Structure formats: structure tokens, C-alpha cells
Amino acid sequence: MTRIHFAADHGGYDLGRALQARAVEGGFDVVWHGADGIDPGDDYPVFAVRVGRVVVEDQDAGVDAFGVLVVDEANAGVVAANKVNGARAVTTVSPRAAVVARAVVDANVLVLDGVAYEESAWLNVHAFVTSPMEQTVERGRQILQIEEYENAGTIEGWAVQLEPEQIAVRHE
């Protein structure tokens, strides 16, 4: 079962809770990491880092997990969440963009503006957590290059020299 880690700051609290409820209704394993109520003084970086960390920890443990962060300003949440090693946070404007973010960069944290319409936001969340990464040599190599730079500060090692037999390729 797919696990979705939700959190929100004061600007995204109502929408975050509404999306959390929809995910529960949709049969997802849902964990809330935000405040218990609206706190006008809360800061988005705390929630962004928290969601990024638990998603990466779950994925490292083999759990099918994603994060959804709903904040006053989505772009700021993306920057903060991407400070977590292994988090690949994006914001999207459509379900198609959510699918592409998953397919191309294997994004694992979706960040939404708190003022988004609930129905539109839910369509983005659902598309994001139900879409796979493209299982191709090219996509695998690109993700490994990003991870190599994130961990070593360079893109010159084994990730560039990945051979086709070194990554599982899905044939449809």
C-alpha cells in the first residue's frame, strides 16, 4: 500500500487536511506530520524537512512512500524540501505535470500552494502518487547523476558509465 506523508504550514493547513482526508478515503496509508491546528507563526522549512526526511527514510527501507507538503508558497517549500539528501521535491500545475515529474526525475515530494482548489490539488496528488518513474537506462542514468552530485559534488563517476544491463528496463 502506498504511504503518503502530509504536512502543511498555516497557509496550507485547511487544504492539507482536506487532501489527507481524501487520501484516507482513497485507501492510502496516510501519516500527518503537520501541526494539530492552524498556527500563524509556524514556518514552512520545519514541515518541508520533516516530510522530505520521512519519505527518504521510508523509501530507503523499501516502503512505497511519497510526501505532500501544502504551504503558503509552494516554491519556497520546494527549495526547503530539496535540502534533504534524497528528496526530489517539485510543484506541479496539472495532473500531467505531476505524471511527468514522477516519470522524468522520480520526484518523491509534491509541494502545493495552500490557495489551490481542493479538487485540482487532489487530482495532482493522485496522479503524483500513482505514476511510476520511466524505467529506462536514460532516466536511471540521469537520476544517478543527480544523486552523484548530491553526494559527491561531481558528475564524473560510475553514474555516467551505466550500462543498459545495470538497470531494470520495463518492456511494454
Helices and strands, with pairings:
Elements: E1 3-8, H1 13-25, E2 29-32, H2 44-60, E3 65-71, H3 74-81, E4 89-90, H4 95-105, E5 109-113, H5 118-130, H6 137-152
Parallel strand pairs: 1-2, 1-3, 3-5, 4-5
Helix pairs in contact: 1-5, 2-3, 4-5
Work out the count of structural domains: 2
- Given as residue ranges, the uncertain stretches (5+ residues, pLDDT < 50) are none
What is the assigned CATH homologous superfamily of the largest domain?
Sugar-phosphate isomerase, RpiB/LacA/LacB
Strand order, largest beta sheet: 2-1-3-5-4
Which class of the largest domain in CATH terms?
Alpha Beta
CATH topology of the largest domain: Ribose 5-phosphate Isomerase B, Chain: A
Total helices: the number is: 6
Strand content: 5-15%
Helix and strand run: EHEHEHEHEHH
Number of strands: 5
The shape is globular
Short description:
It contains six helices and five strands. By secondary structure, the chain is α/β, with parallel strands linked by helices.
Describe this structure in words.
The protein has 172 residues and is an alpha/beta fold. The protein folds into two domains: 3-130, Ribose 5-phosphate Isomerase B, Chain: A (3-Layer(aba) Sandwich); 137-166, no CATH class. Helices cover 45% and strands 14% of the residues. The chain is built from six helices and five strands. The protein has helices spanning 13-25, 44-60, 74-81, 95-105, 118-130, 137-152; strands at 3-8, 29-32, 65-71, 89-90, 109-113. A five-stranded parallel β-sheet has the order 2-1-3-5-4, with helices on both faces. Helix 1 crosses helix 5 (118-130), helix 2 packs across helix 3 and helix 4 packs parallel to helix 5. The longest helix is centred in the N-terminal third of the chain and has 17 residues, at 44-60. It is globular.
